């Protein structure tokens, strides 16, 4: 059981998909201006990522590997993820129009979010089984949401701060992201207990 | 002390500076040369003027009638003549003018007929009305109409009536002196409020740095054999805030979203109680109040001042020292610098402090917030002023409301302790008034939207009705339509489109032509009017002129080929004859 | 090769079918966002944005046809709020911002033509044919739509002055400079 715990802690904190693996930076910078949108984006990504890892595992193991078509992985994963994102978008538009408008262009961008493609590929590289894949996907997404929300909280406060003129906006956000990345480096070794 | 006291969080203990102004008894301020009585002296609707310029008034005569329930009347502070009703600078931080009645006293100070009443013999509604029409408002500084606070909540029976004699602001002693000198009248007045609210217990809270006032009140309560409790509360600013005093005396905490009556408690200032008593038992409306004049003056003292007395006249009574640089109204914690000494004394004027650079030095420059939390420790409402400050400064008003900006009572404790000298309360006031302004705009926009939609709906309906009517007319007389549009075109230069107010008998297009002709004529008339030096003299035309006009009209009528076109071209003509048409 | 094509085709068919079903199942009617946008607009109904009223403009923003910086009565504040709601960048206003104003009819010159009454989008002008007209000031949104139709130029716009009712506490420090 501790094995699963290590996967979770590893994915959420130690090898955080945004701050350590530096994947999925586009929504990290783009949707972190307000806490509310950050929550929404986090939730959407968590859903998409979890489903995508499960789906890609199934496709990989039951469709590609038996026929020796591993070279089609990237292509077929992208197609699957795109379809899932489209589906998510429709559901969100129906259930929460405001969230849909707020997520705006970022929701379709999940399609090309490197984190969403990167996590299934990492799963295969790490030879995770189905449960591990799902867990890794969900934990990575939680890690993504966590830093997105933390970052949005910081940015909301920065808006009230006396930032030097040339640092305002994206510049100070980048500096903050860098410092957060440094902070998350501090988790290194937390999963090296084994 | 029999009563168990509760505390409130936070608060500060500034130097009180109360001793200088209690050395001498309350004195009557002399009559000024002119009184400027603002009509809007209380919270709520602005009273409407009930006198005209040139009218003679008696002391206590109604000059401004209450507008609506939350509003209080205004009365003439002395007998004399109303010189004018004009905009005069208000006792307000902005220094903007407000509509004021200017009275020139005749020196006789003659009262209007006064009828003493016993509140027990009157129905409660009548007593509330009487208080409103006597202009009784909260004299602690907020000036909220008292009668509006005198209704107990329907579901909760009233328990405690708190009488506020704490007077926690430094320098201020007007309530202290009032309690020392007129305790009996205050105690008699309490009975009015107690009976109206049906309160079971009356608690009189006085800060323990005023032992004379406590003794005087206690003696008066015993003398009148009442069961009120006079409680000395620990001296700590802002113990005199209504919510703090209620908390100290009863342990109840009134949230910003509720009225205190919902928690079975209500609070009144001692001066308010006193004026209510004078209003009912002596028939004297509120025409004066006690004002502390202190600070950098040679003779600090409490004065009974007529409302409307220019502050300059009042200040001169204390003989301000030469280095006085500005004057504060209200206390040093919550008051504001007066923009002009021409402003009059109003019901909210409790204290005037002459400030010199030595006693009230200009505040040092604002430094960055270091988030030390000193402000949070002293906040009597347990808010986080540093967070509020952060968001108010960034104009993030939504966030300030999330941090309960509207629970802030602007007591000034946070600014007092701030080691960075940040004027926190100013930021909070700024944020509050910005939020209120936005709310006003929002309401105006909503109303405009509703009107716009109603108008659109009406236009749709009218269009549909018109089309229907047109269709009916067309069906009724298909042959008669031909010649009319031609004449209309010659007049207006463009085809007539939709009939506007055609009577059922007249063909629609004809009416349109008439209207166009009318407008053209009216435009000409207006042009002539603007060119003429006196546009209104069209009534006294000479015979030739009238003939000329008649000739022009006849010509115009010929051009139009349409008799009704003549009917409105002459200004000041008789109402048009009944619809003629060509049917 | 055949298997590759077959597998990809199968995948495409399955996913296509799922999306097709979802587009029917989760079809959205109307656009609730329009109302949210409209709530931010100042409801002057002035048409300065190029749309006939606030609601059409809101619909145009929601559909992505119009930019968010076309509403002068809303000011920069309105632009900022719209940017917040829609997650777009704040842009400077297209036209210049004016102080709030009301229309005043010079009653000496008014000829009672009712043209301004027809032009007023919020029914803030009262009067009848050949009778003098007047503006009900509290209802006037200051949209200036009545100024042009007047044939005798008797309508003027007056800025609303500060008074005790609309006075606001000022921002405590003097800002030396502001940057975006």
TrEMBL record, chain A:
- Report how it sits in the membrane: Multi-pass membrane protein
One Gene Ontology cellular component annotation? plasma membrane
Q: Which residues cross the membrane?
A: 6-26, 38-59, 71-91, 103-122, 134-154, 166-190
Determine if Transport is one of this entry's keywords. yes
Enzyme Commission number(s) of this protein: 7.-.-.-
Q: Which UniProt keywords apply?
A: Cell inner membrane, Cell membrane, Electron transport, Membrane, Translocase, Transmembrane, Transmembrane helix, Transport
**Predominant cellular place of this UniProt entry's protein:** membrane
**Primary enzyme class:** translocase
Single biological process term from Gene Ontology: electron transport chain
Can you tell me which residues the record assigns to a coiled coil?
Answer: none
Question: InterPro entries attached here?
Answer: Ion_transpt_RnfA/RsxA, NqrDE/RnfAE, NqrDE/RnfAE_oxidrdctase
State the superkingdom.
Bacteria
Where, subcellularly, is it found?
Cell inner membrane; Endomembrane system
Described purpose of this protein according to its UniProt entry: Part of a membrane-bound complex that couples electron transfer with translocation of ions across the membrane.
This protein's assembly is summarised as: The complex is composed of six subunits: RnfA, RnfB, RnfC, RnfD, RnfE and RnfG.
* NCBIfam families registered for this protein in UniProt: PRK05151.1, rnfA
User: Member of which family?
Assistant: Belongs to the NqrDE/RnfAE family.
Protein name (record): Ion-translocating oxidoreductase complex subunit A
Q: Which organism is it from?
A: Accumulibacter regalis
Q: Which gene encodes it?
A: rnfA
TrEMBL record, chain B:
Provide this UniProt record's keywords sorted from A to Z.
4Fe-4S, Cell inner membrane, Cell membrane, Electron transport, Iron, Iron-sulfur, Membrane, Metal-binding, Repeat, Translocase, Transport
Using the record's annotation, list all stretches that form the 4Fe-4S ferredoxin-type domain.
359-389, 399-428
Q: Name one GO cellular component term.
A: plasma membrane
Task: Tell me how the cofactor is bound.
Answer: Binds 2 [4Fe-4S] clusters per subunit.
Spell out the Pfam families in the cross-references.
Answer: Complex1_51K, Fer4_7, RnfC_N, SLBB
A GO molecular-function descriptor: metal ion binding
For bias kind Pro residues, which ranges apply?
Answer: 573-583
UniProt KW GTP-binding keyword: no
Q: Which compartments does it reside in?
A: Cell inner membrane
Q: Does the keyword Transcription apply?
A: no
* Region of interest (Disordered), ranges: 457-493, 526-583
| UniProt biased composition (Low complexity) | 484-493
Name its co-factor(s).
[4Fe-4S] cluster
Residues in a coiled coil are: none
Q: Where does [4Fe-4S] cluster 1 bind?
A: 369, 372, 375, 418
The residues listed in the UniProt record as binding [4Fe-4S] cluster 2, with positions renumbered to this chain, are: 379, 408, 411, 414
Q: Biological process GO terms, please?
A: electron transport chain
Superkingdom is Bacteria
Q: Which PROSITE patterns match?
A: 4FE4S_FER_1 (PS00198), 4FE4S_FER_2 (PS51379)
- InterPro entries, per database record: 4Fe4S_Fe-S-bd, 4Fe4S_Fe_S_CS, Ion_transpt_RnfC/RsxC, Nuo51_FMN-bd, Nuo51_FMN-bd_sf, RnfC_N, Soluble_ligand-bd
Q: Where is the composition biased (Basic and acidic residues)?
A: 457-471
Q: How does it assemble?
A: The complex is composed of six subunits: RnfA, RnfB, RnfC, RnfD, RnfE and RnfG.
Quote the function comment for this protein: Part of a membrane-bound complex that couples electron transfer with translocation of ions across the membrane.
> Known HAMAP family for this protein?
RsxC_RnfC
Instruction: Name it.
Output: Ion-translocating oxidoreductase complex subunit C
Q: Which organism is it from?
A: Accumulibacter regalis
The coding gene here is: rnfC
Automatic annotation (TrEMBL), chain C:
What are the start and end residues of every segment in region (Hydrophobic)? 1-23
Which residue ranges does the record assign to the 4Fe-4S ferredoxin-type domain?
A: 101-130, 132-160
GO biological process per UniProt: electron transport chain
Where does the record say this protein resides? Cell inner membrane
Q: What top-level class of enzyme does the UniProt entry assign?
A: translocase
How is the cofactor bound here? Binds 3 [4Fe-4S] clusters.
Q: Where does [4Fe-4S] cluster 1 bind?
A: 46, 49, 54, 71
Sites binding [4Fe-4S] cluster 2 sit at 110, 113, 116, 150
A Gene Ontology molecular function term of the record: metal ion binding
Cofactor(s) this protein requires: [4Fe-4S] cluster
Domain 4Fe-4S positions: 29-88
The entry's cellular-component GO terms read: plasma membrane
Keywords from the named record: 4Fe-4S, Cell inner membrane, Cell membrane, Electron transport, Iron, Iron-sulfur, Membrane, Metal-binding, Repeat, Translocase, Transport
Presence of keyword 4Fe-4S: yes
The answer to whether UniProt assigns keyword Mitochondrion to this entry is no
Do you know which SUPFAM superfamilies this protein is assigned to?
A: 4Fe-4S ferredoxins
The entry marks the following residues as binding [4Fe-4S] cluster 3, namely 120, 140, 143, 146
Q: What does this protein do?
A: Part of a membrane-bound complex that couples electron transfer with translocation of ions across the membrane.
Which family does the entry's similarity section mention? Belongs to the 4Fe4S bacterial-type ferredoxin family. RnfB subfamily.
Q: Can you state the subunit structure given in the record?
A: The complex is composed of six subunits: RnfA, RnfB, RnfC, RnfD, RnfE and RnfG.
> What name does this protein carry?
Ion-translocating oxidoreductase complex subunit B
């Amino acid at each position: 059981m501790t094995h699963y715990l290590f996967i979770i802690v590893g994915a959420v904190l130690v090898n955080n998909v945004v701050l350590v693996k530096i994947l999925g930076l586009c929504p990290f910078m783009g949707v972190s201006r307000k806490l509310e949108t950050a929550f929404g984006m986090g939730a959407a990504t968590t859903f998409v990522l979890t489903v995508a890892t499960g789906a890609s595992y199934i496709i990989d193991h039951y469709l590609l590997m038996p026929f020796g078509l591993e070279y089609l992985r990237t292509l077929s994963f992208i197609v699957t993820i795109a379809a899932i994102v489209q589906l998510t978008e429709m559901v969100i538009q129906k259930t929460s129009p405001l969230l849909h408008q707020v997520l705006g262009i970022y929701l379709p961008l999940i399609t090309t979010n490197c984190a969403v493609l990167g996590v299934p590929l990492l799963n295969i590289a790490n030879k995770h089984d189905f449960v591990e894949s799902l867990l890794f996907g969900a934990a990575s997404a939680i890690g993504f949401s966590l830093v997105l929300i933390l970052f949005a909280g910081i940015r909301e406060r920065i808006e009230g701060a006396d930032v030097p003129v040339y640092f305002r906006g994206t510049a100070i956000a980048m500096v903050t992201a860098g410092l957060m990345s440094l902070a998350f480096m501090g988790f290194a070794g937390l999963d090296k207990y084994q | 002390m029999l009563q168990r006291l509760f505390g409130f969080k936070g608060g500060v203990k500034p130097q009180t500076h109360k001793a200088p102004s209690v050395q001498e008894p309350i004195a009557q301020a002399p009559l000024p040369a002119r009184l400027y009585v603002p009509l809007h002296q209380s919270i709520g609707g602005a009273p409407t003027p009930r006198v005209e310029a040139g009218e003679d008034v008696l002391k206590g005569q109604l000059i401004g009638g209450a507008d609506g329930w939350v509003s209080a009347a205004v009365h003439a502070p002395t007998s004399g003549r109303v010189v004018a009703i004009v905009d005069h600078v208000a006792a307000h931080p902005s220094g903007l003018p407000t509509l004021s009645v200017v009275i020139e006293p005749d020196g006789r100070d003659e009262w209007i007929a006064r009828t003493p009443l016993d509140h027990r013999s009157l129905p409660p509604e009548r007593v509330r009305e009487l208080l409103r029409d006597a202009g009784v408002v909260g004299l602690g500084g907020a000036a909220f109409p008292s009668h509006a606070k005198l209704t107990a909540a329907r579901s909760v029976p009233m328990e405690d009536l708190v009488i506020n004699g704490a007077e926690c602001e430094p320098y201020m002693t007007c309530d202290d002196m009032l309690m020392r000198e007129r305790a009996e009248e205050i105690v008699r007045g309490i009975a009015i409020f107690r009976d109206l609210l049906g309160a079971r217990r009356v608690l009189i809270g006085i800060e323990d740095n005023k032992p004379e006032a406590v003794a005087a009140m206690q003696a008066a309560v015993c003398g009148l054999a009442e069961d009120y409790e006079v409680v000395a509360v620990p001296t700590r600013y802002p113990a005199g805030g209504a919510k703090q005093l209620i908390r100290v005396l009863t342990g109840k905490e009134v949230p910003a979203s509720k009225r205190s009556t919902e928690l079975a408690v209500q609070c009144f200032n001692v001066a308010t109680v006193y004026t209510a008593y004078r209003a009912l038992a002596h028939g004297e409306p509120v025409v004066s109040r006690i004002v502390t004049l202190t600070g950098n003056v040679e003779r600090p003292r409490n004065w009974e001042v007529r409302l409307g007395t220019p502050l300059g006249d009042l200040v001169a009574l204390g003989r301000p020292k030469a280095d006085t640089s500005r004057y504060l109204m209200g206390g040093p914690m919550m008051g504001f610098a007066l923009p002009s000494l021409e402003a009059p004394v109003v019901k909210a004027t409790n204290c005037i402090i002459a400030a010199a650079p030595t006693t009230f030095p200009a505040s040092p420059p604002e430094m960055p917030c270091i988030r030390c939390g000193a402000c949070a420790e002293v906040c009597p409402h347990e808010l986080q002023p540093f967070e509020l400050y952060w968001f108010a400064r960034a104009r993030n008003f939504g966030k300030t409301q999330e941090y309960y900006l509207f629970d802030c009572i602007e007591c000034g404790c946070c600014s007092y302790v701030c080691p960075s000298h940040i004027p926190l309360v100013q930021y909070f006031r700024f944020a509050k008034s910005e939020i209120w302004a936005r709310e006003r705009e929002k309401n105006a926009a909503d109303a405009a939207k509703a009107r716009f939609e109603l108008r659109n709906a009406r236009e749709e309906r009218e269009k549909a009705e018109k089309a229907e009517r047109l269709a009916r007319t067309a069906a009724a007389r298909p042959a008669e339509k031909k010649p009319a549009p031609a004449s209309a075109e010659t007049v207006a230069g463009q085809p007539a489109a939709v009939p506007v107010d055609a009577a059922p008998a007249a063909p629609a297009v004809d009416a349109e032509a008439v209207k166009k002709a009318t407008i053209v004529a009216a435009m000409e008339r207006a042009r002539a009017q603007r060119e003429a030096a006196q546009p209104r003299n069209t009534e006294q035309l000479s015979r030739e002129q009238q003939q000329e006009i008649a000739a022009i009209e006849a010509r115009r009528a010929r051009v139009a080929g349409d008799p009704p076109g003549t009917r409105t071209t002459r200004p000041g003509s008789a109402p048009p004859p009944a619809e003629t048409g060509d049917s | 090769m055949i298997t590759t094509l077959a597998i990809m085709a199968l995948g495409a068919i399955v996913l296509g079918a799922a999306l097709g079903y979802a587009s029917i199942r989760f079809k959205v009617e109307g656009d609730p966002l329009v109302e949210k946008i409209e709530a931010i607009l100042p409801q002057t109904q002035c048409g300065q944005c190029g749309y006939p009223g606030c609601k059409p403009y809101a619909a145009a923003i929601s559909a992505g046809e119009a930019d968010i910086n076309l509403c002068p009565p809303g000011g920069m504040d309105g632009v900022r709020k719209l940017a917040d709601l829609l997650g777009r960048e704040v842009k400077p206003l297209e036209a210049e911002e004016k102080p709030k104003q009301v229309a005043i009819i010079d009653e000496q010159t008014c000829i009672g033509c009712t043209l301004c009454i027809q032009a007023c989008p919020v029914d803030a002008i009262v009067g009848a044919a050949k009778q003098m007209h007047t503006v009900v000031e509290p209802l006037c949104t200051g949209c200036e739509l009545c100024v042009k139709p007047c044939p005798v130029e008797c309508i003027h716009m007056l800025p609303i002055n500060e008074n005790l009712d609309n006075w606001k506490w000022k921002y405590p420090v003097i800002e030396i400079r502001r940057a975006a």
